[in-house]
Amino acid sequence: MNLQLSIGQLRKLLELDSSPQDDAFIFNEVVYDTRTIVKGQGKIFFALAGKYRNGVLFVEEAYQKGVRFFVVSQLPDSVHSDAIYLKVKDPLKALMTLAKWHRRNFNIPIVAVIGTHGKTTIKEWLGSLLKRKYKLVKSPKSYNSKLGLALSILGLHSSADIGLFELSISLPNEGELFNEILAPTHVIVGSIGGKFDENFSEKNGKKKEYLNFMKGAISVFQPETKTDDFFSGNKGVIKLSSSGFQSSLTALGFQDKIKEENAIMAMGVADYFGIDIPKDIRFSDLAMRLETFDGIHNSLVINDTYSLDIESLDAALQYQRSIAKSKNRVLLLPKEVMLPKDEIESLLERYAPLTCHFSNELNLPASDLNDAVVLVKGNAESSMNKIAHLLKVKQHRTKINVNLSALRKNIHSLKDILPKQTKSLVMVKANAYGTGMKRTALFLEELGIDYLGVAYTDEGVQLRNYGVKCPILVMSPSADDFHDCIEYGLEPAIFSLQLLDTFVSILILKKRMGFPIHLKIDTGMNRLGIKPSEISNFIDILNSQPELHLKGVYSHFAESDNQLDASFTDHQLNVFKDSCATLRKHISYPFIKHIANSAAIISHPRASLDMVRMGLIVYGINHNLKMEKKLYPVIEWLSEVTQIKHLNKGDTVGYNREFIVKKEMTIAIVPVGYADGFRRSLGNGKGTVFIDSKSCKTVGNICMDMAMVDVTGLNIREGAVVEIIGKNQSISAFSAQLDTIPYEVLTSLSLRVHRNYIVT
Ligand SMILES: *Cc1c(COP(=O)(O)O)cnc(C)c1O
Q: What is the largest CA-CA distance in the chain?
């Protein structure tokens, strides 16, 4: 990074007492994640408090990697005499103060993109235009939290001509705070949509925040089409319209109004900075940036071929490392990389061991690909996107997109609702609710989830084989599985005396002590579990067998999603609490009490206790539709029109000639059938899919691998994308057509349907 600051200067900035010798200690880079540190010399570690982990826990690791300067909220357990610890109340705030100071060293345009939607698109598109003439420093994709803002500012360096930042102002007072730190000279206001208002009261509205953020800016850009007089009276407002860019817009050929508006914003601002807008302009679609899919030779491919700059390369390498664990990592770059050589080299060193190939063709040995995680990086002009697709395993044209970023956002919102000390377990049983257990579980672990939960021991063994290290609860183990539970470190639920007895005898045989178990109490569901009246028998065994450690006690609600009558849930919670109290009275140590599932987290917050077991909700679905609106859908199920057919009166469609054409019509053949989970009961008009955002009903019976849908009058072409589940049709809506619940839809998505993982 681009700092050159002494500890003495930093102490002054942070208003800490300083001593003269501090001026001798210079640092030039800020780090906050120990995984990214290779050589710690000259770096300062900010021990930030994360949602799950406190940075203080990583201070020692940073020390071992050579870091000697630390900004902490509390001193770590072991303090070294050759290290300097600056103790502050809030390390994040200290980092922001440093960023604010750094910003003041640059007298260049600082362009900020705000708004609720399309910020990344506008920023990236504008960046691609400005790059023709200027050296840019821009915030990496969607890097727009407080931390991201501070880090992006710290990326400003002396050869930069323009700084380009995107940021979300999503909390009261952030407008003013961000203005103070970033001091933007130019502000672009993108689209403003509904989600924005949630954290704002009438009085503390968005207008005020936005206006606060713009204070001191020379110019504010907004689309001409915005009719609200949001910024009227603000002298520097420049309204951007399509005039002057008409031919470029035609070349872009966007069908979609929002994309068009984003393009106008990018071109208008670039024009303001003196860029000639090319008539044959192309903007790449950002929607699929960092797309991950299965590659040939058992590889996993990350396709990030939209833009190639140091920041995005860094971010992509970081992502690659986080999913690769111990697998080999390969980086494919174009032959001519128009980036500073020393910066590339330092990245390659930072992410070592990494095999890197510079080529515009796919000519690397299969042995390099074998079981590796391959990052293909390039920009719109290079042919790297083609290479990524050559690496792709050819697949069935029906696919499920799993949006891991949405999963992360859902979990973060839940974390915000839950009491701070409540742990979270995420259920990844049944192939992680259809999303694919391997990738989902590894991603959740990376996020810092406390526990994963599965139904069967086999699933737990698989998780361990994938490299998952966090605690795993197995809810329905059988006595035959206990060897595996012990070998693989899986925590079994115990729901009968007989099971406990068997488990203890195996532990004795294996000479294992203090093995964690969870006692399952049946509080009224009448499924697995011991009755509260049986508890005393268990207490005796738990107290007399040192082989056992009662790690948790849990139960399960029968109808926590009943929004009309909470009485049974209350009853279950009371029975559970009483049982826990009895256990606690006779057991000398505390244990984790957990009873809440997804629905209970929302409808019965007092049931959250020591840990919650979240399932459906993290995948973006909730019984409470108001809540569901706030969640991000994780799953999208898409297919593609294989063929279009025009039919005449009297023709019939499909097996048993179930459908008879009454008047001329057009149908589309879609390669999705009941073997994929598109059930046969959806045939003959009961099921709907969306093509081009238009609803199309099924025609005739659903086949094993195909379905026919009515596209009469819709002007649909072969190859068009077919949405089965997505923005037009939620999982809840789709389940309703099937007379079932989202759980069943998700878990009946067939394994044959390829899962694509997307990080936005
Ligand atoms: C599946 C399951 C959960 C998660 O349920 P959701 O309704 O998806 O949140 C929690 N606890 C137990 C015992 C389960 O079987």
A: 95
Residues 569 and 673 in one domain: no
Q: Read off the CATH number of the domain in which 493 is found.
A: 3.20.20.10
Same domain, 490 and 537: yes
pTM of the predicted structure, to 2 decimals: 0.67
CA 431–ligand 1 middle distance (angstroms): 14
Using one digit for the tens of pLDDT, what is the confidence trace for 59-111?
Answer: 999 999 999 999 999 999 889 999 999 999 999 999 999 999 999 999 999 99
Q: Are residues 357 and 224 in the same domain?
A: no
Kindly state whether residues 593 and 656 are assigned to the same domain. no
353 and 435 share one domain: no
Please indicate whether residue 759, judged by its CB atom, sits closer than 6 Å to ligand 1: no
Distance 595 CA to ligand 1 centre (A): 9
Q: Is residue 429 among the annotated active site residues?
A: yes
Contact of 592 with 552, CB cutoff 8 Å: yes
* Burial label, 201 (beta-carbon count in 10 A; 0-12, 13-18, 19+): exposed
pLDDT along the chain (760 residues), means of 10: 84 87 88 82 90 82 94 92 94 95 95 84 89 86 72 90 89 90 93 52 67 89 69 71 83 75 92 89 63 87 83 82 87 88 88 90 87 89 84 82 94 93 96 96 94 97 95 96 96 96 93 96 95 94 95 97 94 97 96 98 96 97 90 96 94 94 96 96 97 96 96 91 95 94 96 89
| Residue 742 beta carbon below 6 angstroms from any ligand 1 atom | no
Asked if residue 619 and residue 672 are part of one domain, the reply reads no
Domain range for 476: 402-628
Going by alpha carbons, the residue nearest to atom 8 of ligand 1 is 615
Gap from CA of 597 to ligand 1 centroid (Å): 5
Cα of 401 from ligand 1 centre, angstroms = 23
Same domain assignment for residues 144 and 251: yes
Atom number in ligand 1 closest to CA 614: 9
Q: How far apart are CA 384 and CA 378, in angstroms?
A: 5
Looking from the CA of residue 429, the nearest atom of ligand 1 is: 1
Shared domain for 660 and 529, answered yes or no, is no
Determine the 3-state secondary structure of 497 from DSSP: helix
- CB of residue 493 inside a 6 A radius of ligand 1: no
655 counts as catalytic: yes
